[in-house]
Design a protein that fits this description.
- It is a single chain.
- By secondary structure, the chain is mostly helical.
- The protein is elongated.
- The termini are far apart.
Amino acid sequence: SKKKGHSSNNEVKNLAQKMKVFDLKKDRRQFRYENDQFEKAIDLYTQAIALEENPVFYSNSIIYNLGAGCYISIGDYEKAINDSLHCIKLDINYPRGYYRAATAYYEKGEYSNALEILNKYPKIDVDKEMITLRSKIENKKTLHEVLFNSKIFFY
């Protein structure tokens, strides 16, 4: 008999297969799903986190990162930040967690938070993608500060 709360090997294999299909359909930098597919992917990632035995080719940090990517794609930045922070907590050396959190903060217009989380990544100065994102955020933050702190008024 199966203990309550434990998933069978078949459930794990089925979920792993579904997740593989979603991953095969995505470009490494940009999800290609339609909105309803993002919702399905989020559901699968949520199920994977809930399983006590995760598919062997994923760690929870990667699953949280993938979920964060889906949330960013549908504009749910709070949930993206939440998943990204879980990802970072589970693996402080995994760059995508920082990247997704910074991206979600950036999209919300929270540039200081975006820079703060990005600068916590231990290898920020050797990761070209991170350096590019940091520069983009710094430029936007500077522009934002100039516009909102200037004494120029438009009538």
